[in-house]
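Justification of resources, computational component.

The compute hours requested in this renewal are based largely on the per-chain cost of generating structure records like the one below. Each record pairs the submitted sequence with a full structure-token output. That output is archived, and it is also reused by downstream analysis tasks.
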Amino acid sequence: MSRLFGSVRAKATLGATLVVAVALLAAGSAVLLALRSSLTDEAGTAAQSTANKVATRLATGIAYDKLDLPDGGDTPVQVLDDDGRLVAASEDLERISGTGSGAVRPQPTPTITSHDDDDDDHKGRGRGNGDDDEYLLEPGEISDDVKFTNGSATVDGTTAEYRFARVGVNVQGKGDLTVYAGAPLSAERSAVNTALTAMLIGFPLLLVVVAGVTWLVTRRALKPVEGIRGEMAAITASQDLARRVPEPDSHDEIARLARTTNETLAALESSVERQRRFVADASHELRSPIASLRTQLEVGAAHPDLLDVDGAVADTVRLQTLAADLLLLARLDAGERPGEKRFDLAALVRAELAQRTGDRIPVRTVGLDPTEVTGSRGQLARILGNLVDNAQRHAASAVSVEVRIRDGAAVLSVADDGGGVPPAERERVFERFVRLDDARSRDDGGAGLGLAIARDITTRHGGTLTVRDSPTGGALFELHLPHR
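The structure output for this chain reads:
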């Protein structure tokens, strides 16, 4: 169960369902409120129309008992005088609330004698509902200020909810009167209840549909991911890095994930294959000096007078150099970062070349411009040494070194007048344990690691190392480093 609800499909389904549920709840609430408000307004409009009709009749001076009020079951009506007494009401009205009076039986009032003072007193004064609102009406005038309230009424034993409208009217000889007329809210209640019932039934069904559709769509969308996962599991179990995950025909994120995964597998396969070749080549390179050294020692043990001490020392030095190169490559592959020391590259070149006294061909400098670089002094010295050693193996009569600032970069150049490097081999020459010809054989002391080490160190210093034809006809190796 925890695995099921922990899946992306389950989370997507749950998230989509929750979002839709919240949206439906908000929309449903808004619809119910709007429906209720609209129907309540309609009831208020009907109540106002009835109240205005009754007020119009009163304004004509018709007697209270001649008003012909509407049926109280549909529209209960009350008429209150200036003192708040009930002077007219619908028949069969048994109880009422929400109006200015709870009375249901009219109370006769004495007729007002018409005097000027009394007319002045009744003009503009009137509190038909007993509050402090003033109509300020002339005789026969109906107030435009309509108030609405909600209440209930019991008519002929039946109780219902009503929307009441209050309208004021000034009647000659009767003063200010207040008319309350109600319109039933049963339609509003019924419509709201019907809509609510429909939502309570429809919303869960809609959520089930949304959840089901989301589950199926997500399942279909994630099917390629399951294929990728299954293939990766098979690759892990078989350790066959030549296999690739299936790439869907779509152009979405999953297709890009599959392509990136295959690119990663290809890079991993290449790296593993490179490591395998490296181990095989290293074992092969180590086997020769070790076998030679063992043979010399065994001969020396049996026949001390035949011991080739110089050969044993040479093999030991060669073995030590190869071991040091392999160790350095291992550190570089592990991501060893160069230092951040700042120094003069030209001064480094002068110091390193001054120590090379046993070279087959003297190394000359054709220009050493002061050039500051940042990095590991020892590693850059190793690059210089490897490039000069390579030039010494191939040069016929001249090896030159130059340091210049070119296009904002520090450039270290090592040139010779040997046979050069063919254009097709100018990248392969930087691979590990690569020898292009017999001139770079083991007998010459080269294991095919010098240029590879120089390229790796250069890359970790943010530079480039390339080879092209030298003006003297040989090879020209150029090291470009950021000039900082």
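The first helix runs from residue 2 to 5. The first strand starts at residue 77 and ends at 80.
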